[in-house]
Amino acid sequence: MTGQTTAESPCRIYGRTPELAAVAALSDRLRAGHAGALVFVAEPGLGRSALLAGAARQFRPGPVLRPRPLPRAPRPYDGLRALLCAAAEVPGAAPPRITFGAGRPDGASELTSLLRRFLPGSVEKEPLLVCVDDVHLWDAPSRAALGLAARHPDPRLPLGLLLSMAEHRAADTEFTGLPVLRFGPLDDGAASALLRELTGEHLNPAVGTELLSEAEGNPAVLAALARRLTPGELGGHRPLPRPLVDGAALWATFGSPLDPLPAPTRQLLLLAAAAHETDPGAAGADASLVLRAARAAGLGPAALDPAEAARLVHHDGDRITFAGSLLRRTVYTGAPSSHRRAAHALLASAVAADRHPLRRLLHLALAAQGPDAALAARLDAAAAPGTPTSGMERSAALARAAELTPQEDARTARLTAAADYARLAGHTRRARRLLAATRDGASPDTVHGRAELLRGSLALRDGPVGDAYQALLMAAERLDHSDAEAAAEARMEAMDAAWAAGDPVDCLAALTETRSPSPTSPPSPPQDPRRDYRAGLRTALVGQLAEAESPLRRVLDRAREDDDPIRLLRAGVAALVLGDIAAACRTNARALAVSRSRGLASLTPRILEHLAYAELRAGRHARARAHAQEGLHAAHRAGQRNVAAGQHAILALVASVEHDAAAVAAHAGAALEIARPHGLLQAVTLAEWASARADLCRGRPFEAAARLGPLTRPGPGRGHFAVRMLALPCFVEAAVQSGASSEAKAAVEEFALWAAQGADPQAPAQLARCRALVAPPDDTADALYELALDRHEAVHGDFERARTQLLYGKWLRRRRRPAEAKNRLRDALVSFERCGAPVWAEQTRAELRATGDAPAPVPVGGLAVLTPQQLRIARCVAEGATNREVALILSVSPRTVDHHLRNVFAVLGVRSRTELARLVDRAERSGAQP
Fold first, then answer.
1. Burial of 574 from C-beta contacts in 10 A (0-12 / 13-18 / 19+)
2. What angle do CA 15, 16, 17 make, to 5 degrees?
3. Do strands 313-315 and 319-322 pair parallel, antiparallel, or not at all (unpaired)?
4. Of 215, 415, 434, 770, which is most buried with the most CB atoms under 10 A?
5. Do 657 and 802 meet the contact criterion of CB atoms below 8 Å apart?
């Protein structure tokens, strides 16, 4: 950032943990008496100046020199002059006379010696930090002196150099060999935190989402937006200005590397930026088109060389790509409108009309002034489905056609179509912006119905699903008499919204048959594939799974040869309802292959969510993790936060098998942060289930029962209807271990009714395991555990089998049958290791040690001196459990717990439960536990 555009912000520094750590390391080095240097490199507006200002404020070991910005055309050694002036401002400084002529000042080759002559004697041996912002703007001799001082430090004065420079000047040779730290835009969390600080209480969530999209993680752009918008606009009470960031604001931040370019280079860059306007989703501009247009303007390819040398663009022969989209927008919006229109006219003349008719028409339209109904109609016709072009080019064409359209109904219809193409291409935020422009128009039901359908579809993937449901039902009602196909699709999406919200009543309402269409509406196909799907789901939702099997099985049969990704996605849902997990995995995998082959960026994240969930149900945790991670990235790219919440919930469940509690907490927290305000009960239930399973693994049944109780108990406020029964075996285990046996027995009886319907292949084995857990204290449980293991053999799922083996082994050990317990626990250990569940495997090893099967580690102090039983008791007490609660968890008497706890206190030399908790925490954080 230049001295002219940089303003120090009072805001905190967000999202720069590695950079702040590097500054702290430099400070520690200086405090220890050693010299050091660090160069921050980043694009304009990313916070280089803020980092340097923060470092200067927090540096305590000695003085800090911050030279003022130089003029635009600095003379030789102006940088050193500014630095010496800063040194003269140190309290007590008595600068000697220094001669500044045309040549170098005395001692410039030894910067440290020169600074020592300026500094007062009291700080002569203290560390000195020099912070130079935008060092690339300094004159060459001064830059050379800084680089020489960094590479050859003076041992008499610990000198630290903290420099910043723009990315396009990072190759300057004066600083070769110095430590360089590059950083990019802020991530979503950091950008959101910064925006909240900049806007205070005024910010509407939907407005905030749009501002974050507009800024692309650039703090300077976020600050410019916060300054520009009024409280009414920030709060969503007034429409936002368009464009959100004007050319002047962009030029103030990003214009410094463009200013020095020759006029021909800037003209050619404008052509490249204008060429990109026709297809905003493309990776750069068509180089051959741009260079043909440049030749028509009298410009040769060499005009691009200065921009390439400054790393502003990259030309690979086929495409011309800007270093960043904000830079491209600066070039385009920073030019006068007459220059932009002239650029589009040149590009239109250079397009091969026979090969790219839509592109030529779009450039002509962008060169036009004022409404032009005829040109708008030609654009609309050229953008019709079936023409060989991208979805984003169609969106751009229809959006421009809408701008040229004087008639309101046609304008709204074209804006809606443009928004829909943007949505299908995965550009959700662009779709919302286009759709927002249709709100003020008064249009017939057909036009409004399609706009509401799109609005509801967008909210289903990124917004409160209750709003999506109402918008989609409204769309269906408006489209019933004019477009039966679109109305039916609106009701299907409304059902999806109700399903995500966990509302079976609304699901049934959305699945009702549509009204009789009017004679003018297109007839529905005689074998509408949705009919069986609707009928099957309606029947299943009222608890008649046997009657639902026939129509849902027909849906699955048709999916074997289908290549429609939407129908395949619904077939995957049908398979899950039927309990055919293998078919769900297979059908969703086919849908993913089709979606990828067609480049359906909007649909792919949702398919990946369904596939990951099916694989999770199948016990294929590694595959579920891989697809959920891919889906999470795809959902973020497409602006689909609701889908991202589902992916986070799935990753939390996988982490409850594969990883530690921290990974579970991170993913569950990310899921709940979105799911709760958006009403996504399915994602909430999955995330809470994951957290409870992690609690069980860590020996915290009270916490697990507290999480799962509200979700699994019957009545209002419970968990999602399609997930709560899957989590019920975890609740039974937690309830038994926490002493809530009556609640556990009631839950088992409810689970038995559900398991009898065959909706989950794991349920019969889990039911036998749950019955064993609540069995009376005789040998009844023995036969039930054996039955559970026999049933596990009929289905795949190492993890569930291993959990049954672990619980069986624990039961056998408590019954004083150690030989049998060892066999079951060894089997559990192998199964957990095979399915990649290291945390559960470690719990099994602890049980084996308690049977005497595995030797304890060699004592190394700390917790390693405890017996396995003492260690388990110590951990429970450290987590806050009472002696009675520990007894329930470990299935021993309170007197036994008291006896072991006294021995623990004596062995470890602690006198209170608080001291024990601190010792356990320190030992486990340092990895000293056995």
1. buried
2. 100
3. antiparallel
4. 770
5. no
Short-list 88, 592, 89, 90, CA closest to 98: 88
Give the tokens for residue 535: 């009928």
Give me the pLDDT at residue 930, please: 42
Q: How crowded is residue 213: how many other Cβ atoms within 10 Å of its Cβ?
A: 18
Residue with tokens 């009714």: 753
CB 111 within 8 A of CB 82: no
Average pLDDT over all residues of the chain: 86
Under 8 Å between Cβ of 42 and 218: no
State the number of CA atoms in the 13 A half-sphere of 762 facing the CB. 23
Q: Which residue has the tokens 């501009």?
A: 285
Q: Could you tell me the two tokens for 229?
A: 């918008």
Residues 351, 363 contacting (CB under 8 angstroms): yes
Question: If you ran DSSP here, which 8-state letter would residue 523 be given?
Answer: P
Q: Quote the pTM value.
A: 0.77
Residue-wise burial string across 321-343, b where 16 or more C-beta atoms lie within 10 A, e elsewhere:
bbbbebbbbbbbbbbeeeebbbb
The bridge status of strand 36-42 relative to strand 159-166 is parallel
Task: Give CA–CA dist 698/706, Å, rounded.
Answer: 15
Report the distance separating Cα 300 and Cα 291, nearest Å. 8
Using CA atoms, how far apart are residues 248 and 255, in angstroms rounded to an integer?
Answer: 9
* Enclosing H/E stretch for 180: strand 180-182
In this structure, what are the phi and psi dihedrals at residue 40, rounded to the nearest 5 degrees?
-90, 130
Q: Are 500 and 682 in contact (CB under 8 A)?
A: yes
- Enter the tokens of residue 44: 């304009």
> Could you give the 3-state DSSP secondary structure of residue 221?
helix
> Dihedral (C-alpha) 354, 356, 359, 362: value to the nearest 10 degrees?
30
Assess contact for 641 and 606: CB atoms under 8 A: no
Per-residue pLDDT of 365-421, as tens digits, reads: 999 988 999 999 999 999 988 777 888 889 999 999 999 999 888 899 999 999 999
H helices present in 334-427, as ranges:
337-350, 357-367, 373-382, 391-404, 408-424
**Joined tokens for residue 326:** 């904000």
Q: Answer for the pair 147, 178: CB distance below 8 angstroms, yes or no.
A: yes
CA dihedral 440, 443, 449, 450 (to 10 degrees): -80
